Amino acid sequence: MSDVPSNVHTHTARVRESAFGTHPPPFDQPVDLDAHLAALPLGASAKGLYLRDPVRRAEAARPGVDLFALADVPKRRLLPFFDYPYGELMRLLVAATGVIWPSLPQGEGMRRLGRGAYEALLSQQVGRVIFAAFGNDFSRVAAVGARGWQVSVSFGSVRYVDLGPGHGAYRFREFPAFLETYQVGVVEGAMSICGVEGEVRTKLENIGEGVLEFWWET
């Protein structure tokens, strides 16, 4: 079965007509950490570079803070491409929002943390191998973006759906990883690095299944 609904027509980013019935993400709400942890598959992991990012940013915002202790995560040296429990990343992200942006809604803080993920991946050789050849061409970066998740985490699946010029979507399956906040920020961060203006909307079937639909100026 195709990922594209049968009634889809192509539109430019200015029209903003959704192919999936997506809506603006709930950045003004807290995230449900316990529900996400409970939904993670056994052995779910992420690369260390993603755990390092909230630790680094929290220490920059509040020198001397022990984010590991705040998150109830064992303190350890984080190697960029070693695997670490995804639940530990989740706990670190949630703790970091309170350290870095204590006056902002938690969902907005998670979104902002997600914006650093693409840059963190590009800092590593594997990220440059996947994306560097495309430079600032966001349409090409988006088209291969699912590979970024594939090399970054050990669970779930992500598929890109081409909806026409300046319009695409990622379909997530078995991916309980803050889809409406952190993962939205991941897409926004890639847009920012590519120098394009855009918008991301979401529609979830459940905590780990759903669509991130996005538009960008071409």
Strand order of the largest sheet: 3-4-6-5
Distance separating the two termini: 29 Å
Rg, please? 17 Å
Q: How would you describe the shape?
A: globular
Poorly predicted tracts of residues:
1-13
Oligomer: single chain
Provide the β-strand percentage band: 15-25%
Tally of contiguous helical segments:
10
Question: Structural class, judged by helices and strands?
Answer: alpha+beta
Kindly report the average pLDDT value.
93
H/E element order? HEHHEHHHHHHEEHEE
Helicity range of the residues? 40-55%
- The overall strand count is 6
The biggest sheet, with number of strands, parallel, antiparallel or mixed sense and barrel status, is: 4 strands, antiparallel
Task: Provide a concise account of the structure shown.
With 218 residues, the protein is an alpha+beta fold. The protein has helices spanning 33-39, 48-61, 67-71, 86-100, 106-114, 117-122, 125-131, 138-143, 145-152, 182-194, and strands spanning 45-47, 83-85, 157-162, 167-173, 198-206, 209-216.
Q: Could you characterize what this model shows?
A:
This protein has 218 residues and is an alpha+beta fold. It contains ten helices and six strands, in the order αβααβααααααββαββ. The protein has helices at 33-39, 48-61, 67-71, 86-100, 106-114, 117-122, 125-131, 138-143, 145-152, 182-194, and strands spanning 45-47, 83-85, 157-162, 167-173, 198-206, 209-216. The strands form two sheets. A four-stranded antiparallel beta sheet has the order 3-4-6-5. Strands 1-2 form a two-stranded antiparallel ribbon. A hairpin with a 4-residue loop joins β3 (157-162) and β4 (167-173). The protein is globular and about 45 Å long. The two termini are 29 Å apart.
